[in-house]
C-alpha cells in the first residue's frame, strides 16, 4: 500500500483490451462507467417496451375473446362481468408481455454490449460497429433454429444495425462531445491530476530525506 501510494500513477488505457476491461470495473467512487450504466438502462427500457408491445394487444384480444365466449354465462351483475373480462385480459397481458419483454431486453443488451465493446476496442464509433453488433445478435437469436435461420438472423441484424446506428450517431451530433470523447477526456484529466499529486508527494519526500539524514 505504501509503495503503490508513492508509485507513479498508471497512464490511461492505451490498447483496446485495456479499454475494454474497464467496461465492468468500478472507479474510486465505486461507480460503474457511463457506458455500462447506459447498457443497463437500455436493457430495462427495452424490456418495458417489449412488455407493452406484447402485452397490450394480448390484453385486448383476450378481453374480446372472453366477452364473445361468455354470452351464455351468468354473472352477479355488470361489474362482475367487467372484472372477469379484465382478469382474463390481465392474465394474457402478463403471459405474452413477459415473452416479448425478456426477448427484447436480451436483444438490446447483447446489441449494445457488442457495439459499445467494439467502440471501446477500436477507440472510435462507426456505423460498422452497429452493423457488426446487429449481425452477431441476430445470428445468436436464430442459432437454435438451424444454420439457415441463423444466416437469416445475421442478415436481418446487420440491416437493423444500419438505421439503429445511424440514429444513435445522429443524436451524438447534437451534443458538444460524444460519450467516447467525454470518456477519453475524463481519463486524461484524471491521469493529469494524479500525476500532479504524485509529483507533489515526490517533491515533499525529496525535501524531507536530507533533513532526516542531517538529524541522524
Principal-axis shape equals elongated
Number of helices: 7
Secondary-structure element sequence? HHHHHHH
Q: Main beta sheet, described?
A: none
Helix content: over 70%
Number of strands: 0
Percent range for β-strand residues: under 5%
Structural class: mainly alpha
Overall number of domains: 1
Poorly predicted residue ranges: none
Cα-based radius of gyration, to the nearest Å? 28 Å
Mean pLDDT rating: 81
- Spatial gap, N to C terminus: 27 Å
Word description of this protein:
79% of the residues lie in helices and 0% in strands. It has 216 residues and is mainly α. It has one domain (36-69, 82-205). α3 packs antiparallel against α4, α4 (78-122) crosses α5 and α5 runs antiparallel to α6 (147-172). The chain is elongated and about 95 Å long. The mean pLDDT is 81. Keywords: Membrane, Transmembrane, Transmembrane helix. It is found in: Membrane. Belongs to the Tim17/Tim22/Tim23 family.
Descriptors for this entry?
mainly alpha; transmembrane; 7 helices; TIMMDC1; transmembrane helix; 216 residues
Give a quick rundown of the structure.
This protein is an all-alpha fold. The protein is built from seven helices and no strands.
Write the topology of this structure:
Layout: H1 2-6, H2 16-21, H3 34-69, H4 78-122, H5 127-142, H6 147-172, H7 179-215
Membrane topology: Multi-pass membrane protein
InterPro entries: TIMMDC1
GO cellular component, one term: mitochondrion
